[in-house]
Amino acid sequence: MNNIPHDSQTQISQAEAEELMRSLLHKEGTWVEWGKICRQLQQAGYSTQKIFEDTGFQNSQQNLVIVAAQVFDNLVQSNVDSEILNYFKGPRSDVLYEFRVLNQQQRVDASLLAYDKRIDVDGAHLVAKAMQDVSRMSQLPEAFTNHPGDWVAYISWKRAKSKKDLQERSRLIAQGLKFAHSATAREAIEKLLSDFSVVKSATAPLLPLYRLEIEEELPRIVPLAGSYPLDSQAIEAIEKLEIHQPFSSIKATSGTYIPVPGWQTLLKATDPVAYLCNSDLLPKFLGGKVEEVLVILDRAIKNWDINSYFIVEIEGKLELRWFETEPNVKIIGQLVLVLRPKKILDEGNITEPWQMDD
């Protein structure tokens, strides 16, 4: 047996831990005790893998009995009759586990219904889902009362009405009759035995779900220092931006920021800052009409390199220059890229999916 980890939340001695492990190994007591022991060991710093190796309780089984024991405690706290508590010790941990998604009062109501109807884990899943769905509704149809049995009956009634297949329709009617608590709910469901009209139920639309597949789809957010002319202080005054993954979010209290596609050269930049200037101020002529471009520099790189352009300060103004030899002027940062604006073929249709840059 390993020593108790130093970062444990609940201190227990090694002897106590060994006794708890032994009790689990021999499955002493009920599953409720097993869940409490597993939780105690985990809070003491023992990993689920270590508990599995010493007791044979798999990770999933540990989680099930821990969570189900918490639901069982909700029943104890609500002074549920001992006969019902003994029923769930049966063992029926899998049934109580399904009620984990409910609040404390709903857990008690669902458990009482599960006891009354003697349902299995599939029935428990049905009850939990129905209680979640109905609890979000503003009002039920008049025939159905505010009772968990009627809630399940309502869901069964609603689904049965939308089914053409007689076998599936009959199964849902039987399910509704099984759970119906009130006479009015039972009557509403029984009407479906003679009424075969199909009422299409509305279904929730698909989620607009996407996944980022390539780095360029996730923009690099760069602080914008301003427009030319600028001096070095305007660049140096920009606070370094912290980017948080996985969605490249930033936290900013002030300033202006600009999104740029996540090209590799930008991802390599340690401390990028941008400014705007006209294309005719660049050290090389770009051709075409003069337009505003975005200049992005990396403030983290201040050492001269013959293969790079650098932003320097000359006579109080920023200048983009290439130097054949190491300059004797202050280097503000290395050029990362110059970005030209998107060429819009038809400004009235920029939102159309077929619109592309040349």
Low-pLDDT ranges: 1-8, 354-358
Could you state the order of secondary-structure elements as H and E?
HHHHHHHHHHHEHEEEHEEEEE
Task: Give the total of beta strands.
Answer: 9
Total domain units: 2
Helix content: 25-40%
Fold and architecture overview:
The chain is of the alpha+beta class and 358 residues long. The protein folds into 2 domains: 14-193, no CATH class; 215-342, Umud Fragment, subunit A (Ribbon), CATH 2.10.109. It has helices spanning 14-25, 31-43, 48-55, 59-77, 82-88, 93-97, 104-117, 121-135, 148-161, 166-179, 183-190, 232-236, 264-268, and strands spanning 220-227, 243-244, 249-250, 256-260, 272-278, 292-298, 309-314, 317-322, 331-339. A 7-stranded mixed sheet has the order 4-1-5-6-9-7-8. Strands 2-3 form a two-stranded antiparallel ribbon. Strand 7 and strand 8 form a beta hairpin. Helix 9 runs antiparallel to helix 10 (166-179) and helix 9 packs parallel to helix 11. It is elongated. The protein starts with 13 loop residues before the first helix and ends in a 19-residue tail after the last strand. Mean pLDDT is 86; it is low at 1-8 and 354-358.
Task: Describe this protein with a few key phrases.
alpha+beta; two-stranded antiparallel sheet; 15% strand; 358 residues; single chain
Briefly, what is this?
The protein has 358 residues and is α+β, with helices and mostly antiparallel strands. The protein has helices at residues 14-25, 31-43, 48-55, 59-77, 82-88, 93-97, 104-117, 121-135, 148-161, 166-179, 183-190, 232-236, 264-268; strands at residues 220-227, 243-244, 249-250, 256-260, 272-278, 292-298, 309-314, 317-322, 331-339. It folds into two domains: 14-193, no CATH class; 215-342, Umud Fragment, subunit A, CATH 2.10.109.
